[in-house]
Every structure is written in structure tokens, then in C-alpha cells.
Amino acid sequence: VSAYTRLLTAESDSSVKLIILGRLKSLKKRHSSVLSDMVMDVLRSLTTPNNDIRRKTLDLCMRLLSPRNVQSVVGVLKKELLKTDSPSHDDSLEYRKILVDSLHRCAVKFPEVVPSVVRLLMNYVGDDHQAGAKDVVIFVRHIVEEYPKLRVEILERLLEQFDEIRSSEVYRVALWILGEYAEERKVLDQALLTVRDLVGPLPLIPKRRLLQQQKQGKSNDDDDDDGDIKEGKEKEKDEGKSKVLADGTYASSTITSLDATDMKEEEDIDNEEEETKLRALLLNGDSFLVACLASTIAKMTLRFASMRGFGTMASNGQIGKSLLILSSLLRIGENYGPVKNKLDRDSRQRVLTCIHALLYPEKVQKAFLAKCRTSFKGMLDHVKKVENNTEDNDDMEDHKDVDNVIAIRQLMAEKELYDVDQDSADVKKAVGSDSSTLDINSKLSRVYQLTGFADSVYAEAYLTVLDYDILLDILVVNQTSESLQNLTVELNTSGDLKISDRIQEHTIGPNASKTINVSIKVSSTESGVIFGNIVYSTSKGVDKKIVVLNSIHMDIMDYIHPAACTDTEFRSMWAEFEWENKVSVNTDFMDLTEYLNHIVKITNMKCLTPDIDHYRECGFLAANLYACSIFGEDALLNLSVEQNPSSKKITGYVRIRSKTQGVALSLGDKITSNQRTSDENIGNSRN
Questions:
Q1: CB 684 within 8 A of CB 614
Q2: What is the SS3 assignment for 533?
Q3: Alpha helices for 401-439 (secondary structure H)
Q4: CB under 8 Å to 355, separation ≥6 — which residues?
Q5: Of 224, 417, 584, 657, which has the fewest CB atoms closer than 10 Å, so is most exposed?
Q6: What is the pTM of this model?
Q7: In terms of C-beta density within 10 A (0-12 exposed, 13-18 middle, 19 or more buried), how is residue 406 classed?
């Protein structure tokens, strides 16, 4: 372990660093305590300007956290986070997002570091990088729920930073936090005042247009009193001079002059920041933000009224102010601007629901103030359970069955060391002979018949996929009564496959057999084909004979494995990836969850959507699946299907997205060929 950590710091090649980090992660199962003591040495690789190496380093360190080293690790992460404030720091925004996520994981595992971490991260709520600021505010939402003692301090700090927020998504989460957790009287009053100030004057129209309307109204009033004032506002002076233009024609010039008062007002409008960021987002027609703001105002107003008492002058006054804001939200885009600025129907209905709640507060108080937080707590419990199960599976060590021999090297005689090795399982996996996880059907599915039984030479191959290598054990049988001389297997590949070694020539006696080993390198998840022929000559003839081999189509399922990611990461990758394959659903399944489980089985992906059993009753299903290849390529799948109530037939689409075209096409072909009916031997249906 010490040698690996020294090499990790000294080596400058990024590929070597990634390999070392992968090896350290594999050593964690057996030497977790040793690696935990050297976590600070591993963190030195954060100086590398490669974000992939940083992400993998921090992921390893988060798995090695313990009460002994958590304070030191958090100190290093804080220093790295402060470095990202420097404009000269390369990829600072993406690196900051990685650090925020790591600090979040530290705080969730070890509550003693929460106060120091949350105070630092609150400075980045108004970050220009939307993804980083969103991670911070989501972390704040989690901490506010888990640690009630810190709520007042966090909410006060959030209100101080509220006008610095730049992103609509961050505003939505921050408003939700205020609506749910602003329970103290002082904090609640400050939250209502802050939101009202950021919304600005009503009605919700651009401030310049509002000032112009106010000025026009004032001008009309003045005109009623004295019509001569109009002449002082604007004067047109005609110079009366004619000018000769370049083409020989005449033109007259007119000069319009404004008095000093108008010029000063125009200058003040230009110099003044016209809108707050929240008001600008609202005026731009952000329907989601409007709905969230309406819900937050309704919750805080109901809580205010419950504290002061329903029907009192203070509560009625606050309800009236809130109703005025909500009614202004309904009219966004109606008095000005294009149609796109108007609210959508769902957001409009949400605002109307909030208005109804304030008009009849005693009937809906429990639904607004209690049930939403209960649902959020249930979601946190589910996420925590999934993360714990994932870590337990990663850390699970090999177990011995009952009555199996357990080899302890220190208690064995010297001569027995060569017979039994405690690392024999790793050796078997390295050579592809680990059969503990393969049943007989899986083994037979990897046998490919290359020639016919009537051919003079019979050949079949057993294929083993070992991450970046494919091992072919080709069995060649001489079915003639003559010796076959200079027999060689000529193989070629298509796709990102490359034969490593040159295949030697062999001589096979009558009715004898020979096993030929071939190693093929794999460089990507693209589907490939292995094809070729067998060339040999007999003792009687001079001419060579050729037997054409059946081709072997590589299955993408050998390269991908189930993986997990957060909903935010899934949406980010979905928006980023450019290759998409859309497959129409055509199946005989009559149950939505059974069809989803079937898709999970044939694609070897993990379902990220929780609680799918309740979809049986509603008649439609939407689920996200995720997998990662051995080369680090991500595969995303979205399943959107519905069931016809009368015919029970399932219809819909399966959409697959990936960075590479080959992954998207291969997964689409796999689903198309296997989605129709349930097949217990899906692994046998290879192309």
C-alpha cells in the first residue's frame, strides 16, 4: 500500500494514476485499516489538474473515512475549496462541484463536522456555476432536516445570501427551505420581508415600464390642472436650415431638447439596477419558479396566521399582502411581452390552489405545513438506505461455505504453501476460470461452434471476457485419418478489437485434437465481430485447404455492469449526451413492473426509480436505468410506457443515450431482439 501511494504521488502519467487508484480500491476489501491510515497520502493526488483523477481519489477517500481521520480530510477539502476561488485555477467550477459533493458525504457520515462545513458552503449559494450552487443548497436542505439545532443559524445565513442567488433552480430549493423550516417568529418575519422585497413593487411588470406608467399618470394629472406644463416637458426647435445631401437633394434638421428634470430621471433609470434577480426570473416567465414562490408564500403566511391566531388583525393583514402578490403572479405576461412569458396551465392551477388555501386556511393547514415535510423525510430515509446497501455490497468480502477449507498461511507447513494459496480466487479471476458465479447455462452460452460436424476439421471456441482482454480457447479436432500439417487459425476482427499475438502453426495427427489460445485486446464498448478460417495441408497434397469459420459477434453485455448515480447526475448526463436510440415497445407482457424487470435483466442495468410497485395501479410507468462500461462509458435508459385499460397491451418507448454511438445502438438492438416475451435463456440468444 505504501508503494502504491508513493507511486501515485510521484507518477505524472494520468493513466498510471487511474490504474493505481483502481488497485487501491480493490485492496480496500482486505486492507481497509491500512488504507485508512494512509488516506492523507492518497489525497496528495488532488494536485493533479485532471478532474477524473480527483473524482476517483475523493471517491476512494470517502470510503476510507473514519472518526480518526475525518477532521483531517475535511480540512484538506476546505483548503482545496478555497483554492477554487482563484480565477487562475483550471476547471475550478467543475472541481468545486466535486469538492462540495465530497463535503456533503463527510457531513452525512460524521455529524461532528456539520457546523464547520455548512458555514463554509453557505458562501457558495450565490455561485455563478449553477450545478455547484445547486449542490450547496441541496446539502443545506439535507442538513436543515437532519439537524434541528442548526436551523435558525442556517436560515438566517440563507436570508443574508438570498439576493445573491443567480439560478432559478437554486431559488426553487431555497424558497422551499424557507417555506418548510421558517418556524421561529423572528426568522419567519424576516423571511416574509425578504421575499416581499425581492419580488418588488406590484404589479409584476418591468420596472422601466412601471416608472413610465407612473410618470404618464402624473403627467395626465398635471395636464388637467394646467395645460401649459406640457410645453415645459418637451420642446422642439426647428432650426429652419436646409442642408444639401451628397445626392444633391435638400433636407431639413429638427432638434428636440428635454429639460433638466427629464434628463436626470432618464439617467437615474439607466444607472439603477432595474430588477432583482428573482423578479427578473419571474418576469421572464419561469413557471416552475412562480409555482414554488406561490407555495412558499402560502406556507409562510399560514404559519404566520397560526402563530398570531386566525382572524386577528395581524394575520388578516399578512394574508391580504400575500394574496396581492399571488394575484400579481397570475397576471404575469398578460399585460406585456410575448405569449411565451405567460404561465403554463399547471403553474397557474398551483397559484390558484395557494390562493384558495389562504382564503380558507383552517381546512388546508395540515396539508401545506405537515405532509410535505413528511414526504421529504421519507425520501431522505430511502436515499440513505440505498447508499448503505451500495456500500455494504462494495465492501462485502468473499465468504466460505460450510465445511469448506479456510487456508491460513501462517498456520500452514512450508510444503503446503505451494498447494494452497489464499489468493487463489484472484488468480482464477485473472485467468478467467472463476466458476463460482457461473452456472452451467452461462458456461455453455460462451461456447461457439465455428465449423460443421461434417467438415474435415471441427472447431469450437470458448470465449472469456476479462475487462480489456478477450481469451479464445479454440478446440480443433482432426476428423480425418491423415495428419494435418501446418495447421493455423487465421483470425480477423472488426470494430475496436485487435489480436495481440501471432497464432503459430501446428501439426495434428489423425483423429487428434489441439487447443489453441488466442488473446484479443478490447479498446471500447463498440460491438465487434471475430471471423476467419482454418488453413492446413495434408501429407499427400501440396495445395492448402481452407475451412471457413462462423463469425463470433461480441455481446455488449460482457462490457457493461449495473451502476448507481444521483438524479441530478442522471439529468446532467442526459442533457449532455448526444447519441440517442429510440425503441418502440412491442411486447407480450401484460404487467408494467414485470416488463421493467425484464428490461433490467436483458440490459444488465440498474433501475434508479424507487417504489415501482405502485405503478401497477396507475396504468403508466416512467423509470430511469443506468449502467457503466468497463471503459468508464455511461449508458442511460429511460422507459416510458402505459397500459391500455381495455386490451391490457403495453405501449410506449425506450430511449437510450450515451456518449458513443456504439453503446446506444447495441443496447437498442438487444432490447429489440429480446423485449417481446420472457425468455429464461436470454443469454443463449446471441447474435
A1: no
A2: strand
A3: 424-431
A4: 323, 326, 327
A5: 224
A6: 0.64
A7: exposed
Residue 274 or 322, more confident: 322
For the segment 400-428, the average pLDDT, to the nearest whole number, is 55
Cell numbers representing residue 44 in the block: 496528495
| Closest listed residue to residue 167, CA positions, set 196, 125, 204, 206 | 125
Q: Determine the residue type at 272.
A: E
d(CA 359, CA 323) in angstroms, rounded, equals: 9
> Cα–Cα distances in Å, from 425 out to 84, 397, 408, 463?
44, 12, 14, 20
Strand-pair partners of 546: 535
Confidence category of residue 230, pLDDT binned at 50, 70, 90: very low
The torsion angles phi and psi of 86, rounded to 5 degrees, stand at: -75, 130
Q: Whats the size of the chain, residue-wise? A: 687
Q: Are 257 and 237 in contact (CB under 8 A)?
A: yes
CA distances to 231, 234, 241, 245, 266 from 254, rounded to whole Å, are 17, 13, 9, 16, 21
Contact 190, 199 (CB under 8 A): no
Beta strands in 159-211 (DSSP E): none
Q: How many CB atoms lie within 10 A of CB 70?
A: 17
- The grid cell for 17 is 494514476
288 torsion bin: left (phi>0), alpha (psi -120 to 50), beta (else)? alpha
What is the pLDDT at residue 91? 65
Cell 388546508: give the residue: 364
Task: Please give the grid coordinates belonging to residue 158.
Answer: 440563507
Q: Are 622 and 640 in contact (CB under 8 A)?
A: yes
CB-based contacts of 399: which residues, under 8 Å, 6+ apart? none
pLDDT, tens digit, for every residue of 135-179?
A: 888 888 888 888 888 888 888 888 888 888 888 888 888 888 888
Residue entry with cell 392551477? 349
